[in-house]
Records
---
Amino acid sequence: MNNPADIESEVGRLRDVLVRKDRRIELLEGLLAQAHALQFGSSSEKLPADEQGLLFNESEEHCDIEPQLALNDIVVPEHKRRKKKRISIPAELPREDIIYDLADTEKFCPHDGTALKLIGHDQHEQLDIIPAKIKVLRHLCQKYACPCCKSYVVSAKKPKQPIEKSIASPGLLAHIVTGKYADALPLYRQVSILERSGITLDRTSLANWMIHCGDLVQSIINRMLDALQQQPVLHMDETPVQVLDEPGRKAQSKSYMWVISSLQQSAQPAVLFHYSPTRNGDTPRLKLNDFSGALMVDGYEGYQTACNEGQLIRLGCWAHARRKFMDAKKQQVKGKSGRADQVLSLIQQLYRVEKESTDYTVDQRYEIRQKQSKLILSKLRKWLDKAIANSPPKTAIGKAVQYLQNQWPRLTDYVENGCYPIDNNRAENSIRPFVIGRKNWLFSASQKGAKSSANLYSLIETAKANGLEPYAYLKLLFTQLPSAETLEDIDALLPWNCKGVVD
């Protein structure tokens, strides 16, 4: 070791060890900060306005973005305290008047004894609610016989029921479906609620009813899929679901609920759920086999086969890209700006362009994106080219940079058409009610139950997308669909065709 060359070699090796340890410490500190932020911090991805001034105080070795691009557009409104808006009671609700009057002995003036004259009243309104009332629908089919020959007897026909020979009416089924799939009330809780009203039902019966309802509406689901495949742009996403009884699989195996959604502003807004035991690309290929437009999804590569086979334009989600830089931001030293802030500021500007052009036509939005969004994207590209070389891949900022690099063509394609969305939030918002419900009912017992749940969630979310009250729409559907015989009968019951029909 007395050899100078050996000493220099050993010093170099120790320096490398220290560098690796410093990087390891930095990574662990970042993970600790991120875990702390996840547990105790806000989950919002909104960039606080008071941090804007710190976005570009880092060395320009990482970025040549002009600060003015972010700062010139910031408007800080004058602070003004707003009065809390009073809750309004809808005018269409029925009113019941409760009149308070003076006693007869008080209806005289205390000064001269003259009888008082009614001049009006002081008014105060309260909301009241009547708990659910349960009644029995008794179907009486009138029978007639010939009084002469006494051999001819005929009965009036009862309309087909959603579940024949069942005590469940369309209204009861709609109530239970809405409770579970719109209000996230598990069936066992609904059993308890019904019991308080004097009706004793078991959870198994309710579960069987849900499966029957899911099968009943399959024709509507098929027509909704046909309508979705004719749209120019679709959103798609997936989330895990546990199904206990799947052939050849353990109960703990992870299955998936997929969702396909139209654009928010579509003339026929639809949300379609589909259960699949796996997350592979078979579901996108199956559900998009007749689709030929643009598909907005996240970075999961399971969608790529369907895009390749159908020659679909695959759009990337800026919300997912932003989320990864938010994770990197959470690992920064508090109060100090970093590279994540620079990207978040530019992404915020992209979203500001979208917000300001919300009410514009498709062509106008295209022109605005070409003039404004493309300029911001060029700044982002310039930043990305420099960041790739000096962002360690295992760090949060490195993962965010790599995601942005890999998804760049998909993320930037939205500016080439005014109707393309900037992110996949439409699908994420559509799938959120399922995620909330899953926290309550935890799992599906069987594949039949999972498929029925997918169909019923589809109806609930599509009804909401069309401005329909879910219970009212489902009651109409369960009443009329059993008697629907033609394609025209079925199409008349699609949610966008029931506007103005459902109360």
---
Amino acid sequence: MSKQIYNWRKVVAGDIISFRYKSKKSTAGVLQTLLVFNPRLPVTRKDGTKTFHLVGLKLETRGNIPTITNKPLLVQLLENIGDLTIVDEKTGIYKVLIREIGSRGVRPTVYKRIQRDLKKFTIYRTYDYVQARKSQVFLEPIVLPKNVREALIEN
């Protein structure tokens, strides 16, 4: 299972990506794996400046530590968001096809469907798009249960 080099301009809602993000608190960038909801959400800050945010669900930290360790719960969450599909079978890279996508990304109906899970697992994250874009982006493989992988391969 290896990741694939990707391009920030190609990132869309439903992609599972990884990138190094250097926060204000840390000196070194930490590898983040994210299910993208909104790749470039326009935001107006309190001081009136405008910026963009990368919004999504954090799936893994430091490349291999899952935020949701229970794999059936992870699969259920991903299926509540949309249809899980295979991007590359050999490397284990998947994508979630989200039905409710608007001009700015995922619509609020998706958030309402998974609201309870977001509170339970605290995986909702926003990142400064300019800061995130400073690092290279990859399509990241995730580990799914064997029966789910086989079902996806059959379809």
---
Amino acid sequence: MRFALIAVGVLALAGCSGGDESRQASSLAGPGAFALRINTYLRTGQFDRAWEHLHPDQKRIVSQATLASCWTSTTDVLGDPKVRMNVVEIFEEPWRIPGTGLTRPSTAVTVEAVRPTQDGRKPVLETWTQHTFRTGAGWSWIVAAPFIEDVQKNAC
């Protein structure tokens, strides 16, 4: 189950492929790269690094240990090292930060997970939108509402 929609992994593990070059170039900096980096932290178990960038309002709800515990209790297509992530769209959108009741301006990053095949095809396994937020001097991300609900119910 996908909980975050930053989502957001690091380009060393997640290459952009196919599509318009200008769109790809814009995804290599700013919120697109940030979303990919966070997804990479999560998929490689670097929960401390992911938590550092969690939105400050959600840090009050989700501890670093809880993030790790809940995330590792889910199955995810990103657990497959052959899966690559691509940024397919970036747009501005106000978004409610789950668990807080606050709506803030965000930059939405649509990410797709693909598993390249030997014949060159790149079937899309999953697509999600991660919301990133300008906080301080950088970006922050959020976990989705179902994740917060599980945390609040001690269900993970």
